[in-house]
């Protein structure tokens, strides 16, 4: 059963950006970024943005006894990135759920801003003690509705 978005909480939908570069170990035998690396790029950008943009680092979640579980990951590839390319990962929270968020994202190549891929990822907040979903605390919602 799919979770319904919270109706009483409108996400801010502020778009945050993180810039990075393709490393040699990201390249596959076809000389472009391997498909699995795009999820790594998104997760690295979210960790950066949690701390820098929302003001809550992953370490703070862990200290509070919480973690984020990747419930669902969707990606639509448009054009590949190659060795030495610089890119920007843009993310925004599209929906809030009682126990999670759906983040939309796009990765664009720089400097031409050509779309490399886009998609969404649904994260569930879990208790590190029980490994079960937990309702998102108000102190998190306040930070995430920017």
Describe the protein:
- This protein is of the alpha+beta class and 146 residues long.
- It has one domain (16-144): Thiol Ester Dehydrase, Chain A, CATH 3.10.129.
- The protein is built from three helices and five strands, in the order βααββββα.
- It has helices at residues 35-52, 58-63, 138-144; strands at 16-21, 66-77, 86-96, 100-110, 114-127.
- Strands 1-3-4-5-2 form a five-stranded antiparallel β-sheet.
- Strand 4 (100-110) and strand 5 (114-127) form a beta hairpin.
- The chain is elongated, with a radius of gyration of 16 Å.
- 21% of the residues are buried.
- The mean pLDDT is 93.
Write the layout of secondary structure elements.
Elements: E1 16-21, H1 35-52, H2 58-63, E2 66-77, E3 86-96, E4 100-110, E5 114-127, H3 138-144
Antiparallel strand pairs: 1-3, 2-5, 3-4, 4-5
């Amino acid at each position: 059963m799919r979770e319904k978005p919270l109706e009483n909480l409108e996400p801010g939908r502020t778009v945050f950006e993180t810039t990075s570069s393709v490393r040699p170990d990201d390249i596959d035998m076809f000389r472009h970024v391997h498909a699995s690396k795009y999820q790594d790029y998104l997760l690295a950008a979210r960790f950066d943005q949690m701390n820098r943009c929302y003001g809550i680092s992953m370490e703070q979640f862990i200290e509070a006894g919480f973690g984020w579980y990747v419930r669902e990951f969707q990606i639509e590839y448009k054009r590949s990135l190659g060795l030495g390319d610089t890119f920007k990962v843009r993310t925004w929270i599209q929906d809030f759920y009682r126990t999670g968020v759906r983040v939309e994202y796009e990765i664009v190549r720089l400097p031409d801003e050509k779309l490399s891929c886009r998609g969404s990822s649904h994260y569930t907040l879990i208790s590190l003690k029980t490994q079960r979903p937990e309702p998102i605390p108000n102190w998190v919602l306040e930070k995430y509705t920017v």
